[in-house]
Amino acid sequence: MHWYPPRYQALGGTSSMQRKRTPPKLCTMQHTRTTTRTVVIWKQVIRSFTLVLIFRTNCHPTHPTTTMTMPQQHPHQHPHQQQKNRKRISIPRTGNLPDIHWRAISMSHLRAHPNFQPLPPPSHISSLPTKEHVRNFRQDSWQWDYLHTGRCTTSQCAAALGFLEPRAARFLGIPSSLRRGGSGAWERLRQVVDDDVDVDLKGLEGVLCEGRTGCDTPSVLDDNNNNGNHGEKRGDTTVRRWRPTSKESERIWIPAHRLHNGLRTKPFPFTAKYIPNLTNDELYTRKLYLQRTHGTPSPMKTRMQWGNAQEATSVLTALNYFCDVDRRTTIHEVGMCGAGFDDGEDEVLQGVKIGASPDAIICHGNGTVEVLEVKNHCPFVWNRISPHYGNVKKSSNKKKKNKGKKKGKNKKKEVEDDEDDEQQKGGGHDGGPKHYLIRDFQLERRIPTAYIPQLMMEMLCVGDAVDLDNDNDDAHNSASRTPICTSAVMVRQTATKGAILLRLQRDEEWIQEMKYYLGRFQSEFVNTGKVPADNFFYDSDPNSRYHKFLQRTIELSESVEQVAFIDHSGVQRMVLERSRRTKGSSPLHHKVPLFLDRVNEGE
Question: What are phi and psi of 98, to 5 degrees?
Answer without folding.
Answer: -70, 140
